[in-house]
Design a protein that fits this description.
Largest sheet: 5 strands, parallel
CATH superfamily: HUPs
Order of helices and strands: EHEHEHEHE
Bound molecules: adenosine monophosphate
CATH topology: Rossmann fold
Number of domains: 1
CATH architecture: 3-Layer(aba) Sandwich
Structural class: alpha/beta
Shape: globular
Number of strands: 5
Helix content: 25-40%
Length: 143
């Protein structure tokens, strides 16, 4: 059975739905759990005119705080929490390799994905992963 699950999260409310599946999977398999969130680099111009000096730094700080809270809820230690900067799919696949994950869990689409289609991240993970991938079908958005 699975020994190391990597949860890829966009840290939106949709994560709640995926978390329940991960909890159940974990209690069935007793697998180790790692969690990853990727911050995509922003185009290299200044946002100072918006009064924001270091928007990328702020996004990274917020992501770190959110993933730490998630880690506490799921009993995952700091060394198994990853906030990476770069292209989302590449980073998820790299960390999956690095930690030797045998299952990647992600949502079927992100916050803005079309509910009936597989999101581009989920698609890329499915096509690029060397291990099994569980795409959790998210409830249709009410937005
Ligand atoms: P998307 O392809 O953007 O519609 O997202 C599909 C799924 O990929 C989400 O439900 C998450 O599980 C995962 N995902 C999307 N964006 C990220 C991100 N920035 N970091 C980690 N996982 C992500």
């Amino acid at each position: 059975m699975y020994k190391h699950i990597l949860l890829a999260t966009d840290l939106t409310e949709d994560t709640e739905y995926v978390i329940e599946k991960v909890r159940e999977l974990r209690s069935l398999t007793h697998a180790k759990l790692s969690i990853i969130h990727v911050v995509e680099p922003l185009p290299g111009y200044s946002y100072a005119y918006l009064g924001i000096e270091d928007i990328e730094g702020q996004l990274i700080d917020e992501a770190k705080q959110s993933i730490e809270k998630l880690g506490q809820r799921l009993n995952v230690g700091a060394s198994d929490l990853f906030v990476e900067i770069g292209p989302t799919k590449t980073k998820i696949l790299k960390i999956a390799d690095d930690v030797n994950a045998d299952l990647i869990v992600c949502g079927s689409h992100g916050r803005h994905g079309l509910s009936l289609l597989l999101g581009s991240t989920a698609n890329a993970i499915l096509h690029g992963a060397k291990c099994d991938v569980l795409t959790v079908r998210l409830p249709e958005s009410t937005d």
